[in-house]
Specification:
The structure is a homodimer.
Chain A (H helix, E strand, L loop, with lengths): L4 H8 L3 H8 L7 H13 L6 H8 L4 E6 L5 H16 L3 E6 L4 H14 L3 E4 L7 H7 L5 E4 L9 E5 L1 H14 L5 E5 L4 H16 L9 E3 L7 H13 L7 E4 L2 H13 L9 E5 L13 E4 L2 H17 L7 E4 L2 E3 L11
Parallel strand pairs in A: 1-2, 1-3, 3-4, 4-5, 5-11, 6-7, 6-8, 8-9, 9-10
Antiparallel strand pairs in A: 10-12
């Protein structure tokens, strides 16, 4: 006979409500009780009927995630970390990629909402708010991550990107660089905020910030290397060549460094570079790459926990959670190898 | 009023069956008709009711994917390519990661089946067939990818891994190397087949294959760099040091090259390396890494198409589709930079 919640509750001397809460990943159950209940469920090979639960509760026990590019390590790592949190609460992750195309993103969001999900998480590639006003009409709560819309009252989990820009630029200044350029993103909130951080720091240190030292680029996620390479070629042609470059992300920095080496210059002696994202293989690059780590796994974990809360209680005042970034120094800004 | 399939069919002068087939991603509709129908659906902002369709047809229009590690670029790229095929047919992708843990994998498979999916795709980290005998009891068709079980009659999409091993080893032999080692996987079919390909080639060229030239390792996906580093330290201690190493995958090769450089040796002059997987950033590594490309995006595309077929017609004799690998030469085996 099928094992029921009642059986588990009786065996452990707890209430059915408690067992049910553990199953639903409710956070107001103590860690020890949670472990005991999960252990007993496993021993008895308890199989909740998800479909029946879904029909009864109106919940689907799924969370939808829309990212611009899954192969970019930031989004892969975010999805992995998020998936771990959801798994611990018996939620499944439905994944969609927008390929940085606003139209595909709109389609994917529509498909997910139509299918039924409890919460939607998006790193949007929309230039405007249109999608999200539509979303506001739906009953499904949503949560922006990585990319925010400043004029939209929405839940957000991301980096403090002004601080990212300040931290990267300050590091280059502290290394003695005076002519600091920025290969920038555009149309997204991280792009805007990192640029602001860069400008803040230059102003604070009274360093020149000529307009042509900022090269705004598109497609920095899925085509970062090629885009960074091209942007750097522009900077190399300037009369007053920069002596350091803060790059929007790590792939962009990889491309920019390639262009610099191809031009017969040395990194970091002639031009230093810092990226953003702290990708898994940064230590092993031709020039090991300094980077700002925005705590991707931590972002995924926090987003997962907020998503679970929203799944349980959709109506909540919008919260914005910013994870503080950290600096990782490597050879591209002159750090000697630590290992 | 809501737009119905009937309206679209009438507007275009086609049958309702045709429109319905396009919606379900059925492949027996001509490309031109498909485009016309999709265009009209878009113009009318047609919203199929997925839940109602699911209840009526017993289909969920979702495909489940279980991978060992999403951050490993192979699985991220596979998922991206697969997702593209599914999106074109209005299917969603539910993603789960096993973290290379057989117990988590079993849980995730159970959760997906309970939730209801039309097809399950798995790159399994199971050492045995137990999971899949259980799966055989379910009505949900499944498809193995990347990792096969030789004695299981199941659908499979993957590389020809014997050929991968032969191709990598032949390349090292053609470059003049005589003492060729292999940092190997274990317990999975690609590990077994790549090792077989390596041994085939050494035998064919009457080269020595001492037992201690093969270092079998676990955790080559999510901890490849550290594992490769450690395995290489063993090889460097041998009296007869190898002059070339075929590494199970690219992260493993990155770690092995690090260990070699740390020992004061040169790559490829003292020891040459070839990996497998042809990761996105291989060109930009300290030593640009030669690799066998197993056509990841193509694997994802083929798996997606087979999954759609199985979703439409679950009962089919098992098919095994192997994508031929290609060799990409870079500096780690002495290729000069092409760019």
């Amino acid at each position: 006979m099928a094992v029921r919640l009642k059986d588990i509750a009786r065996d452990l001397g707890v209430s059915v409500v408690t067992v049910s809460k553990v199953l639903r990943g409710n956070s107001d159950i103590g860690e020890e009780t949670r472990k005991r209940v999960l252990k007993r469920m496993k021993e008895l090979n308890y199989q909740p009927n998800m479909l029946a639960r879904g029909l009864a509760s109106g919940k689907t026990y799924t969370v939808g995630l829309v990212v611009p590019d899954l192969v970019h390590p930031f989004f892969a790592e975010f999805a992995k970390s998020l998936g771990g949190v959801l798994r611990a609460s018996n939620r499944a992750l439905i994944l969609a990629s927008s390929e940085e195309d606003p139209e595909i993103e709109r389609q994917e969001i529509r498909t997910l909402l139509r299918r039924g999900i409890d919460v939607l998480l998006i790193a949007s590639c929309q230039p405007s708010l249109r999608n999200f006003y539509e979303l506001g009409d739906e009953r499904t709560p949503y949560l922006l991550f990585d990319r925010n819309f400043p004029h939209l009252a929405a839940h957000f989990v991301g980096s403090d990107d002004v601080l990212v820009g300040e931290m990267a630029t300050r590091h280059l200044i502290e290394r003695g660089h005076k002519r600091i350029a920025h290969i920038a993103g555009q149309s997204t909130s991280p792009a805007h905020d990192r640029l602001r951080g860069y400008k803040n720091m230059l102003a604070e240190h009274r360093l020149p910030a000529p307009e042509n030292y900022v090269v705004p680029c598109d497609h920095l996620e899925e085509a970062g290397v090629a885009t960074g390479h091209k942007a750097m070629q522009k900077l190399l042609k300037l009369d007053q060549r920069p002596d350091a470059v803060f790059c929007y992300n790590d792939p962009t920095a990889i491309g920019a460094i390639e262009a610099t080496l191809e031009a017969g210059l040395r990194v970091p002696e002639d031009i230093a570079f810092i990226g953003c994202g702290n990708m898994r293989y940064n230590d092993y690059l031709r020039v090991p790459l300094s980077s700002i780590d925005h705590g991707t796994a931590e972002l995924g974990r926090i987003a997962g926990e907020l998503a679970l809360e929203l799944a349980g209680k959709p109506e909540q005042p919008p919260r914005s959670i910013l994870v503080p970034p950290t600096l990782v120094e490597r050879a591209s800004t002159g750090a000697r190898k630590a290992r």
